[in-house]
Amino acid sequence: MNDFDIQKIRQDFPFFAAHPELVYLDSSATSQRLASSVRAAVNFYENQNASPFRGLYELSVKATEAYEEARQTVADFIHAKEAAEIVFTRNASESLNLLAYSLTQCVVSEGDEILVGITEHHSNMLPWRDAAKRLGAKVVYWECDQEGYFSPESLKQALTPRTKILAITQMSNIFGRVNDIKAYAAIAHENGTLIVADGAQSVPHMAVNVQDLDTDFLVFSGHKMLAPMGIGVLYGKKALLEQMPPFLSGGEMIDYVTRDRVIYAEVPHKFEAGTVNAGGAIALAEAIRYYNELGFETIENREAALTHYMAEKIMALPHFTVIGSQKPEEHNGIVTFKIDGVHPHDISEILSGEGIAIRAGHHCAQPLHQFLGVPSSTRASLMFYNTTEEIDRLVEVLRTVRKVMGYGE
To answer: 137, 165, 267, 364: which one is catalytic?
Structure first.
């Protein structure tokens, strides 16, 4: 961490200048905004604003070009074969809802199964349950061990000839553990099962190559990776996207319409009904350029060191239990914990009173908490822009929590 100019990095984020005393450790919920990403969106609306695809005049053409350049930037970032495999959405949740609606119509029939990891965020669970109910199929849960590990052997046991889709996160928002999507994809494909990977937590923190992983679909959100809220991505193999019906109907997702017939536009446009979020896409592309300049080797090394530092300190505290692996290197920026006798909401309130922002509750993963036998938990999550001094401040206040709650220690 000594070679990382953290003060220079933090200058790229206006939030830290606006809140110099606040310790922000909730980046798994949403990251802070990169100044140049916000400026890219503002510049579009101030200087390039026109509806993409809708006009033949110069400004509209330039807006279309900027939007499509952003798509290519995203495709290059995750190593998609071509830009047509990138669909812009509002966020990862919308991407997953799109898949649960459109993909299931192509591959799921009555009596079929959708296999969902027990670790999943509600966004990668509830849409599949809705689809299964609609189609007369059923959701089956693939269970991990108490440290969040999914073994390839257990996947083979969980798959059946009727398993059509496997939905699994690449990085758990509770454990911080990275799942071996490449290995799972190989096993799933051998069974004739498609795999949907939730990359909302992974893409902002590690290099992702969808071709190497051989995942059929991958989703992620811009707001977790330095860009504004309201822009998300669905990656899908082109041949699969071409088979799927549109999720929404309306303007620009059509090629030809008569009173009784419609020909839809080619992918990805048939999935982008209405006026697109051009400013958001351009802002996401700018955030990606920042990632590329900083480099994932630098990012991963920095976050690994910070995670190890934070996990070790929290694990050493009396009356604390870290959820998941007891190996700091398996937490990847996320340390979720509980304190004996203290509700997570009380922990959060105490920390908030000392200018520290963390997450308390079930983190949109209630079935996982039920599986673990933990009603709720507290989560501290970081990014490369955090500091060891901030972690020290967190631990300093955590030491006082039980005393504040009347335990005398």
So the answer is: 364
